[in-house]
Write a structure and sequence with these properties.
Blueprint: H1 3-26, H2 32-51, H3 61-72
Length: 74
């Protein structure tokens, strides 16, 4: 898997998991599934930073995001 794609997928999954965690906590439930999803997202982000030579800088994350988005949208 391309490190850029792994980074973007990890960020998107984490973004969708955060409202699920907040919902579970507000309903006083254990956010088990949400936490597993966040662990998966964190693993993807760690994979991306470990496999890309030099890693990522915070400033280049939006550029990577839109580059990957541009590859998959016509």
């Amino acid at each position: 898997m391309d490190p850029d794609l792994a980074l973007v997928v990890g960020i998107v999954i984490a973004g969708f998991a955060i409202p699920s965690v907040m919902s579970a906590l507000s309903d006083r439930r254990a956010p088990r599934a949400s936490m597993v999803t966040i662990l998966i997202a964190g693993g993807l982000v760690l994979y991306a930073t470990a496999t890309k030579p030099g890693g990522y800088e915070i400033a280049e994350v939006p550029d990577v995001f839109f580059e990957v988005l541009g590859r998959f949208l016509p």
